[in-house]
Amino acid sequence: MKKWKRSGRLVDMTHFLKEHPHQLVSLSYFSDRYDSAKSSISEDLTIVKEVFEEQGIGSLLTVAGASGGVKYIPKIQGAEAAELVQNICEKLEDKERLLPGGYLYMMDILGKPQLMKEIGRLFATVFAGQKIDSVMTVAMKGIPLAYAIASHLNVPVSVVRRDHRVTEGSMVSINYVSGSAKRIQTMSLARRSLQEGARVLIVDDFMKAGGTARGMMDLLSEFKAEVVGIGVLVEAEDVEERLVDDYVSIARLADVNNQQKQVKAEPGNIMNKLKMEE
Amino acid sequence: MKKWKRSGRLVDMTHFLKEHPHQLVSLSYFSDRYDSAKSSISEDLTIVKEVFEEQGIGSLLTVAGASGGVKYIPKIQGAEAAELVQNICEKLEDKERLLPGGYLYMMDILGKPQLMKEIGRLFATVFAGQKIDSVMTVAMKGIPLAYAIASHLNVPVSVVRRDHRVTEGSMVSINYVSGSAKRIQTMSLARRSLQEGARVLIVDDFMKAGGTARGMMDLLSEFKAEVVGIGVLVEAEDVEERLVDDYVSIARLADVNNQQKQVKAEPGNIMNKLKMEE
């Protein structure tokens, strides 16, 4: 059996904790894993905790008692968060993404797994203090963000569909009015995809009037599930009547002008939510 | 400025390398980051490398010379890979997932980000030695796996769609024959979603005759892109005529019997590919 030294333990422990966010790991587990005394493990964890907190990697919660241990909570620091939000705003202002009809091409942003991971960590920071059982999104552009957030929270993802596929089994469907186009549409979720009574975080890439988010909330009530929050990457400007009022956004479009080929974006409300969390 | 000790550097370095897979990081970068001599950084990296390799976290390549540095390649070890593949097979054999028509419900597997990450690491191990610019999949069930793999390879994802949305800009479309149903269908990819000449890994959750994979290959040739490989989570049993022959699969359905409520799954060919890679 390998004889572990502190230096080796620190490397492996950092890896292990990062792979198991929001999960309570007992001191005994580490003590067995490294064949080391609990007092040494405690000292290791103090070092990990210090670096995680100083470097803005996240926090390491210590739970005392017989069933105690440590829990790694991925977080992002204020300055790094502000930079990330600014970076997204600048990307959004690239006029090359303007499409006919005032739509914005977003797949270059959504298509970058590392960027999604960072944004996921930002959302995971804001919702770190809440009990969340599942992240829910609607196919397809919300999926990358939903998985990035769920991965940091260590919970499963439920994907709502606008069509009905044979591979989903029995589904629960609702009709909803898309807020901006005022069209009646259908969305469905596989019955076995969500536990009754689950506490759910709703995620999407874009929100205009919030009809889709409202629809997901209605769908959740069919599952007797609870909405913990709503997170969107980008919210639209100039919305007359929003159908949801409590949501967290990374960026807000301030002005989209197709004739002048100009997009203006500003930080969403996430920075305020982050401050409240701190 | 913080005075870094070896113990702290090891924690932060492990975090940093895990966040930047397949990316060359110079010794100078670490030397500046930790305000430490390159000789100390080299010793740190030797410790990290040893633990990463012994624990099956991945390998740490050292590139010598002025533009040299280190590169972390996420990998999975043979024994852990075999266990993961076995675990997927057992999950697939759960008869509760049988749906009318012999379809299998898979969203419980695909909906788990941590499980997807592990499978992503397995695929990333098999394709670690090849130059890959992008991972491509088709909406929507291939998306979680595609992001998991792309995240380990540190490349973007291109998502092919079966519909045409205004938010994609100009798209390149092709018709393809779905192998099993012999129906003509259309798939499209946003023109700006993939660079001409890119080297692409094709990913999907399920493959029967391979019509969809074949379609993606045809679509790639429209972009003058090159297919580096094809990875699927599950391949179907009893396929008379496969439209692609070079692919990597995690599991293979050996028998799906709706009357007897029975599913048999066996490891796909990935374990052989993994051995070849080693």
TrEMBL record, chains A, B:
InterPro entries: PRTase-like, PRTase_dom, Pur/Pyrimidine_PRTase, PuR_N, PurR_Bsub, WH-like_DNA-bd_sf, WH_DNA-bd_sf. The keyword DNA-binding applies. It comes from the Bacteria. Residues 5-74 form the Bacterial purine repressor N-terminal domain. GO terms for molecular function: DNA binding. CDD domains: PRTases_typeI. Keywords: DNA-binding, Transcription, Transcription regulation. Belongs to the purine/pyrimidine phosphoribosyltransferase family. PurR subfamily. Homodimer. This is Purine operon repressor PurR. It comes from Sinobaca qinghaiensis. The lineage of its organism: Bacteria, Bacillati, Bacillota, Bacilli, Bacillales.
